[in-house]
# Entry
Amino acid sequence: MTLTTPAYGVRSPTSPLEPLTIERREPGDRDLLIDIAFCGICHSDIHQTRDEWGGAIFPMVPGHEIVGHVAAKGSAVTKWEVGDTVGVGVIVDSCRECGPCKAGEEVYCEKVASYTYNSHEQDHRTPTYGGYSTRITVDQDYLLRIPKGIPLNRAGPLMCAGITTYSPLRHFGVKEGQDVAVLGLGGLGHLGVKFAKAMGAHVTVLSHSPGKKEDAKRFGAEFLTMNSADAFKDNAKKFDFILDTVSAKHDYDAYLRLLKMDGTMALVGIPEPGSIRPQSLVDERRRLVGSQAGGIRETQEMLDFSARHRIAADVEMTPIQKANEAFERTMRSEVRYRFVIDMESLRTNGS
Ligand code: NAP
Ligand code: ZN
Ligand code: ZN
# Structure
């Protein structure tokens, strides 16, 4: 038995988002059925629906910034109750046996995690469908608890943009007093600024959008527009750490030269590939690293940290019927700073 569920998705890399019907599994013993309240629009939804990373699975229902409430639970579920406020991020399962899974780093599962969409369940056959839909069935071990105090419509983006910026700041040891730059003030970037500030860093936004200066200040950061050669020359060897969230192709060497000796640049943005000159790293013994979202344990840690520090996403709400426009505005770097779909729009008007 399956649960017929209204959704929005794409049928091919060149088709727009449109109403689709998908089948969800009935909750098994260890599953929860979640009524989705809100789902953020991540730039990865755009890359993947347009097959910019290759290997996409169609039809595709995107969405991995999901928050909602437990509507039903399986008989063996011990951790959750009907009515709990929960989140689902970028993965819904993993092998649970490999080193990374055992270490709580499930997103790095060696046998391939089940991503929330554009992926397969652990049977490696059944496609997964994401949060642009009214409900989702998830194993109890891959759910997150949304702490009281975070407004629910502003919590969804924490499930991907939040953990993807929190995790590298923590893992690469960003400390109080360090000079941290966040490259790109979008969905990821604005949360990266808030986390780095809360960790005590001195934060600067590096942007190609001058109009975002006031917002950067409101988030507690300095602001530099990187649209001239002088901007790069004047800020050479300034930063201990750069968090690169940019979604479009850009010059990695130019930004690496903004790092001090022994500085680290962490890539989280995934644009089309670009090249790097070895000297950009060699000259100042710099590091270039990358980072995915984060494991379940660290995602919960990030949510609790957010509640303590009153961190949530700045959002623009949209009905699902306007999701294609939201994609276009995100592409133009216009959104302030995350579109969030109110799933009530799909419940009351399925097309
Ligand atoms: P977003 O909201 O669209 O923000 C991206 C920002 O990049 C823009 O706001 C803009 O900031 C800057 N930018 C865009 N085009 C640019 C250009 N041509 N030149 C210079 N800067 C440009 O996207 P997002 O949702 O934050 O995602 C950012 C990237 O991270 C995407 O590639 C996404 O797929 C990736 N991502 C990776 C992971 C992971 O696991 N590592 C997880 C989530 C997302 P300014 O206007 O300030 O310049
Ligand atoms: Zn994402
Ligand atoms: Zn694994």
Summary: The longest strand covers residues 31-40. Residues 94-95, 97-98, 100-101, 109-111 surround zinc ion (ligand 3) (CB under 6 Å).
